[in-house]
Design a protein that fits this description.
This protein is of the alpha/beta class. The protein is 42% helix and 15% strand. α1 crosses α8, α3 packs parallel to α4 and α4 packs parallel to α5.
């Protein structure tokens, strides 16, 4: 374990987090999987361990600083942190409550801040932090709290990149667009078609697409890049397709 680079991935039980775990395992990392939900984290980790993968898993909330500090403090080193854990729900601006707004911000921004602040205590020069933001940081209908939180995630990334540059720690972000996850599959076929039709590529991204972007930033060979956003949204950030 000590001879391998260690990557900690939050929200690791499914979706983009799981795809990232599997990709970084391929790249030779020892993985620390973190998720607040015992399932599917336990089931996923059990499957990967049965395949002989080098990892451990921990169920905890990223907003619980004592738990986060204890976990990271017990690691022999930490080379990569992937801040993927987040919450999401719809709500038009005039119906969102202050409690809803604070709850989303607390996880998506404060939780990311807590993870990163504890992580750097174990990081050496060349370590990397990757925040998983969203194309939604640009804007989104009925998503005001989510837009705000993801814009905060981007702002936090840039602030960390500036402050941590002198320590030799690189901080970047990926901004996924429409991705085929359980949330997307829960939509009606009509709504799915509508969303895909707005994509310039007329395609939907896969969790593995985002994992590949994260892996680029996580690779120690990727140097002299910090404070940057990699947008992985099928071109949606350019505008709605007109054909």
């Amino acid at each position: 374990m000590k001879e391998q680079e260690i990557a900690l991935v939050t929200g690791a039980g499914q979706g983009i987090g799981l795809a990232t775990v599997e990709r970084l395992l391929e790249d030779g990392f020892y993985i620390v999987m973190v998720d607040r939900s015992v399932e599917p984290l336990t089931g996923t980790a059990k499957r990967l361990l049965a395949e002989g993968k080098a990892l451990e898993h921990h169920a905890l909330s990223i907003t619980d600083r004592p738990a986060v500090a204890a976990l990271i403090g017990a690691l022999p080193r930490l080379d990569v942190l992937v801040n993927n854990a987040a919450v999401f729900w719809d709500g038009k601006f005039d119906t969102v409550t202050e409690d809803d707004f604070r709850a989303m911000y607390d996880v998506n921004v404060i939780g990311t801040f807590v993870m990163a602040q504890e992580a750097i205590k174990k990081m050496q020069r060349g370590a990397r932090i990757i925040n998983v933001a969203s194309r939604a940081y640009l804007a989104g209908y009925a998503h005001a709290p989510y837009v705000t939180s993801k814009a905060g995630t981007i702002g936090l990334m840039r602030g960390m990149a500036m402050d941590l540059a002198e320590k030799g720690i690189f901080v970047n972000a990926v901004a996924p667009g429409l991705i085929e996850t359980e949330m997307f599959r829960s939509l009606t076929p009509e709504r799915q078609h509508e969303l895909i039709s707005k994509q310039p590529t007329k395609t939907i991204g896969q969790p593995e697409d985002i994992a590949n972007g994260i892996a680029f930033f996580a690779d120690r060979r990727t140097k002299n890049i910090t404070g940057q956003i990699m947008t992985l949204d099928g071109g949606r950030s350019m505008g709605i397709s007109l054909y």
